[in-house]
Design goal:
The complex is a heterodimer of chains A (about 100) and B (about 500). Chain A is mainly alpha-helical and about 100 residues long. In chain A, about 35% of the residues lie in helices and about 5% in strands. Chain A is flat, with a radius of gyration of 23 Å. Chain A starts with 9 loop residues before the first helix and ends in a 10-residue tail after the last strand. Chain B is of the alpha/beta class. Helix content of chain B is about 40%, strand content about 10%. Chain B has 16 helices and eleven strands. In chain B, strands 1-3-2-4-6-5-10-11-9-7-8 form an eleven-stranded mixed beta sheet, sandwiched between helices. Classes of the chains: A mainly alpha (about 100), B alpha/beta (about 500).
Chain lengths: ~100, ~500
């Protein structure tokens, strides 16, 4: 048997929310601790499986790099793309301040 | 229903009538639009009906027919599109607030293929937000309802597409299937639904959920119609590096081939999986017996790793989703919640834009990929995926196709599983193994449950086994009990 991870804690959920850039309310955090715990309990059966000699499958197809000749061709219309952005300036996407942010 | 008999017209018949000039594409479209206007306020199959675009497309088909030109294999046939398929200049929302109002700057390759085949794109159908769910109740725009019984779900996540076909709003629809999202709603709505071999259909312009599992596929009222639509959308696409090339199977090649001598294995682990209702098991047994009577060699076969499919899936799919959905950051498209700095803007935008199930899956996936847990969850799930592929490949050494239930039960009531995510996840127990393996599988209606609602039987085949899969599915359809009119649906009024 392999080691099965322990039950997910409120601190784990808060940490994962930070990694995922999701602001959670206290109520959401509490609900997720419970619901993720139930789901993780159910899927713990695979964490306990002895499959050390089995190679992993990341994808159903044997992936290989696909190359094409370097010939220019039409791309997306820039105005059409930028028209969908929340904020633009001088044909660029405009974002809020990026310095001094945390974490 | 407002136009009796409309649902009886298949896409093949309609295309034939339009081609021969017996019926105009415009008249066929107006029938569908009238049905949508009458019944969709209750069913809510559509997020957006493309009235003007569809009328222009139908007129163009009629002009071609009048001029004696080829209108295409789907000339004049209305087709509904799941609202996670990009349509240039037409709202594409994934039933999420985070994409509300977004107009894609390009068409998905399947949309381009449909236009080229003469199809009339009629609208964008409702789904569980970002295709995450099994009931369409996770839509930010409200649930769809099962047209056969409006108190029940149509299944999901392609619930809007299945409901649209079952209600007669369109003879054909496209959905996407990551863990059963075409086959399960097809079963619950009494229509045919197909998940093709991974890579048979281009994913370009399909908004990604779990890229190693997602496939686009058809929903239709008959096996032959589903084959017609799959053959139109299948094929190599240079815009999708995971799209297959070379000799690809034709779904329609052997529809009339029968099943004499075909080896059919009923998968023990799927037939007896957690939560399979007795009436669903009974229909599966009857379908297997009917195939044996038609000449197939039917046996039970064990595919042991299939039972670990659900756990592996609920690690791999959320892990891939947590990465794919990182792009919704309020910078390039969709919703932005203004904030002082970019980090706060990301967190606030994603908190406001995503619904509870999407957040849950992002959290689950991020956790499974995070330091200290990666090997226990994601690494293990990838090894289980190998076992599933090996077990199925071993079964296909002795069988041409496999048989199982599609969904554990008939359509359940709205609200029955919304408070219990795990119970909802178990709806996928029979369908996810095909996604993990990359193999094709399809659901064919076969009789009804004790409640009178449809049951689906699932035909599974090895990679690129579409020809034999459709051959057996056509035989299942031929021996299935006649479809009875629904009691509490829109037909009853």
């Amino acid at each position: 048997m392999r080691a099965v991870p322990g039950r997910i804690s409120p601190a784990d959920v808060a940490h994962v929310a930070t990694l995922a850039r999701l602001d959670l309310t206290d109520a959401e955090l509490e609900t997720f601790v419970e619901q993720l715990g139930v789901v993780l309990d159910h899927i713990a059966d695979i964490a306990a499986l002895e499959v050390a000699g089995v190679p992993p499958t990341a994808h159903p197809l044997p992936l290989r790099n696909v190359l094409r000749d370097d010939i220019p061709r039409p791309s997306l219309n820039r105005e059409e793309v930028l028209a969908q952005a929340p904020d633009t300036e001088d044909h660029r996407f405009r974002v809020p301040r990026i310095m001094g942010e945390a974490p | 229903m407002s136009t009796p008999g409309r649902a009886a017209m298949t896409a093949l018949d309609l295309a034939g009538e339009v081609r021969s000039g017996r019926r105009t594409a415009v008249a066929a479209l107006e029938d569908c639009l009238a049905a949508i206007a009458a019944d969709d306020p209750e069913v809510h199959a559509f997020n957006h009906v493309m009235v003007d675009e569809a009328r222009a497309a139908a007129s163009s088909v009629d002009r071609k027919v009048m001029a004696g030109d080829d209108a295409g294999p789907l000339g004049g046939v209305p087709v509904a599109l799941k609202d996670n398929l990009c349509t240039r200049g037409v709202p594409t929302t994934c039933s999420s607030r985070i994409l509300d109002g977004w107009l894609p700057p390009y068409d998905a390759t399947v949309v381009t293929s449909l236009r080229a085949a003469g199809a009339v794109l009629i609208g964008k159908t409702n789904l569980d937000e970002f295709a995450m769910g099994s009931s369409t109740e996770n839509s930010a725009f409200g649930p769809s309802r099962n047209p056969l019984d409006l108190s029940r779900v149509p299944g999901g996540s392609s619930g809007g597409s299945a409901a649209a076909v079952a209600a007669g709003f369109a003879p054909l629809a496209l959905g996407s299937d990551t863990g059963g999202s075409i086959r399960q709603p097809a079963a619950l709505c009494g229509v045919v639904g197909v998940k093709p071999t991974y890579g048979l259909v281009s994913r370009f312009g399909l908004i990604a959920f779990a890229s190693s599992l997602d496939q686009i596929g058809p929903l239709a009222t008959t096996v032959a119609d589903a084959a017609l639509l799959l053959d139109v959308i299948a094929g190599h696409d240079p815009l999708d590096s995971t799209c297959l090339s070379g000799q690809l199977p034709a779904a329609r090649a052997k529809l009339d081939g029968g099943v004499d001598g075909i080896r059919v294995g009923v998968v023990t682990e799927l037939a007896t999986a957690e939560g399979i209702a007795p009436d669903v098991s009974a229909r599966l047994r009857e379908a297997a017996e009917a195939l044996a009577n038609a000449g197939a060699k039917v046996d039970e076969v064990s595919v042991p790793a299939a039972v670990y499919g659900l756990s592996a899936y609920y690690v791999i799919a959320p892990a891939e989703a947590s990465s794919n959905l990182a792009r919704y950051d309020g910078v390039r498209y969709g919703l932005r919640v203004p904030a002082e700095d970019i980090g706060s803007m990301y967190g606030a935008t994603r908190a406001a834009g995503f619904g509870a199930e999407v957040k849950r899956r992002i959290m689950l996936g991020t956790y499974a990929l995070s330091a200290g847990y990666y090997d226990a969850y994601y690494g293990q799930a990838q090894r289980v995926r190998t076992l599933i592929i090996r077990d199925f490949e071993s079964a296909y050494e002795s069988y041409d196709v496999l048989l199982g239930p599609t969904a554990p039960t008939t359509a359940f009531r709205l609200g029955a599983k919304t408070a219990d995510p795990l119970a909802m996840y178990l709806s996928d127990v029979c369908t996810i193994a095909s996604n993990l393996a990359g193999h094709p599988a399809m659901s064919v209606p076969f009789g009804t449950g004790d409640d009178g609602l449809p049951v689906g039987v699932q035909v599974l085949a090895p990679a690129l086994g579409e020809t034999v899969m459709f051959q057996v599915a056509a035989a299942v359809e031929a021996v299935a009990p006649p479809r009875t009119p629904p009691k509490q649906g829109i037909e009853a009024r």
